[in-house]
Amino acid sequence: MTWTTLPKMPESGESTPQLLNLDHAAMQTGFSWDAARAELAGLPNGGLNIAFEAVDRWVAAGFASRTALRWLGKNGERREFSYADLAGLSNRFANLLERLGVVPGDRICVLTGRIPELYIAALGTLKAGAVFCPLFSAFGPEPVRVRLVKSQARVLVTTTLLYERKVRAQCDELPDLRQILLTDLLADGDDATGLLPFHEQLMMESAERGPPATRPEDMALLHFTSGTTGTPKGAVHVHNAVIAHRLTGRLALDVRLGDIYWCTADPGWVTGVSYGIIAPLANGATLVVDEAEFDARRWYAILEQEQVNVWYTAPTAIRMLMKAGAVALQGRDLGALRFMASVGEPLNPEAVIWSREVLGQPFHDTWWQTETGAIMIANTPGLAIRPGSMGQPLPGIEAAIVRRRTDGGVDILASDTEGELALRVGWPSLFRDYLGDSDRYQRCFAGDWYLSGDLARRDADGYFWFVGRADDVIKTAGHLIGPFEVESALLEHPAVAEVGMIGKPDEFAGQIIKAFVALKPGYEPNDGLRKELIGFARTRLGPAVAPRELEFMVDLPKTRSGKILRRLLRARELDLPLGDLSTLEGDAAES
Ligand code: ATP
Ligand code: MG
C-alpha cells in the first residue's frame, strides 16, 4: 500500500480554533501551571492525553487539512500528512495495539530511522494508553537488547533489516516481547515468531476511535538518557508533561500556529520527541522531518525550500556547519527563518557570534535534560542574548545554584558563585521515576529541589551560565575549572573545530588540564600549531586555567546524540576502565 491511497478523514465542523493566547510579559508575572493546563483541550472527566493534544484537538478546531508532518526521504521522496491523516492513522495504530492484546502501561518500542511509521506509532501508542519508548536506530545489538529488556517491551516496531541485524538473535531473552511489526514487510505475518506486516495490520483497523481514556499522571513516555556520564537511565514521563511541552514550545522556541518547524534531533532521544513531535504539534505547527543524515548543503537547502520558520538543533551540528564554512550556504535565502535554537551541550559564544555573522541571526541556547522533560532555562525570543549564557528560567520554573550539605539538605548560593544547578519541583514534565531504579531517582532530590548534576552559576541579572557536568569539573592549583570556559576559549581560534578537556593528575598542581583538539579542514596538526594554541589559551584564560597539554585528534569521541564524551577521553588517557560505551558514536558501538 502507498501512503497516497490512505483514506482521507472528513473535515470536522470548522469551529473557531482555540488559539493560544500567551503574552510573554504577562506570563512572567501572572504565571500559573493551572492556567497553562487550561490552555489545553483536555478530555472528559479530567483526562489528558499527549497525542490528543498534539493532533486531534486541531482536527476538532477546523485544521484537519493542514499539514502536520512533511516527510523528506533520503532518496528525494516527499510525503505530506495532514492533521486528519495523522489522527486517523494513529487511531488505527491504537486500535491495532488493542487487538494485539496491549493494555495500558505496556511499553511499545520503536527502532526505526526517521520514517513516518515512527510518528504514527508514537501517537497511536499514546492514544492506546501504552508507553512510547523510542530506540535510536544506529544502536548496535547490545544497546538495543539492554533497552528492550529494561523497558520490558511488549511490542516492537522496526524494519526487516534492523530486526535481522539487532533483534532476531536475542528474541529468546525477551519474554515480554510478543509482536514485532515490520514496516517494510508486505507478505503475510508469521504468528509463530510474532512478525507482522505493519501496514497491512494498520489497514485492517478502523480510523475511528473514541477519545483516549488516559489520566494526567498515567505513564506515557520512557526515554533513555544519552549515556554521557555513565550507563543510560530510563526516565519515565506522564501525560501531564504535555502542558510543559506546549508551553515551552511557544515560549522558548516561539512556535506559532501554522509555522513550519524543523527539529533536527532524532526521536531516539528526548529532544526528538518532546520537541520533534509533541511541542510543535501541540502548537499547531507543521513538522519537517528529514530522514537523511547531516549534510550542510542539504540542511541549508531544506531551510530555504521548506520555508522553515523555527529551527531547533544542537551544538554538534552547529560546529559541523561552522566547519563546512559559509560556502555551503552560498545562494540560499533563509528569509523565512524567524527563530533558531540549540540544545544538548553548551553553546559556545563563538557559535552565537558565527550564527549572527553568517546566518544573520543568533542561535538561542536552551538548557534541559531527559529528566526535566522540557526546556527549563532558555534565551527566549524577548531576552537579550549574552553569548555563552543558557539564558533565564522559563515562567513556572524556579532555578537556583545550590551546594549539597552532608545532612541531605542544600544551601542556596549567592549570585556569581559556582554550584549545582537545582530546580524546585512542581512543573508537570519532571520525570516520575528511573524505571527499575527508584533509589537512584530518590537521590536526585533534596527536599523539594531536583538536583541536576550540572554545575553552573547565576549572574546578578538572573542569567545562568553553564560550568560543566559535576563529573567533568577539575581542580587545578586550587582553582575549580569547568570545561566549558576552557573549550570556548580554544574554539575562538580559527584552526579549531572541536575541543574536549579533561583533568590529568599532577604531582604539584593536583590536576592539570589536557585539551583534545580536532582541526578544521586546511590545518595541519604539528608542534608549531600545538604551541600556538596553548599560547592562545594562556593569553585568554591566564596560565592557571589554560591547558598544559594538547593533543590533536581527527574526531572527538561522542555519544550518538552528539555530545563530547569527556569521560572516555579521560579513561583512555589515564588507562582506566572505559565504562559504558553503549551510546558511543561510530563503529566501536556497532558490534
Ligand atoms: P547521562 O545522563 O546518561 O549521562 P546526558 O546527561 O547527556 O546523559 P541528556 O538528558 O540527553 O543525557 O542530556 C542532558 C545534559 O546535557 C544536561 O544535564 C547538560 O549536561 C547537557 N546540556 C543540555 N543542554 C545544555 C546546554 N544548553 N548547555 C550546557 N549543557 C547542556
Ligand atoms: Mg544526565
Provide structural commentary:
By secondary structure, this protein is an alpha/beta fold. The protein folds into 2 domains: 3-13 and 20-453, 3-Layer(aba) Sandwich (Rossmann fold), CATH 3.40.50; 474-590, ANL, C-terminal domain (GMP Synthetase, Chain A, domain 3). It has 17 helices and 28 strands. It has a 15-stranded mixed β-sheet that branches. Helix 3 (50-63) packs parallel to helix 10 and helix 9 packs across helix 10 (270-282). It is globular. The protein starts with 23 loop residues before the first helix and ends in a 17-residue tail after the last helix. Residues 1-22 and 587-591 have low confidence and may be disordered. Bound molecules: adenosine-5'-triphosphate and magnesium ion. Adenosine-5'-triphosphate is lined by residues 225-230, 232, 343-347, 365-367, 369-370, 390, 452, 454, 466, 469, 561, 563. Magnesium ion binds at residues 225, 229, 369.
Structural class: alpha/beta
Which descriptor suits the 3D outline? globular
Give the tally of structural domains.
Answer: 2
Poorly predicted regions: 1-22, 587-591
CATH classification class of the largest domain: Alpha Beta
Distance between the termini: 34 Å
Instruction: Give the name of the CATH superfamily of the largest domain.
Output: ANL, N-terminal domain
Mean pLDDT across all amino acids = 92
Instruction: Provide a count of the helices.
Output: 17
**Quaternary structure:** single chain
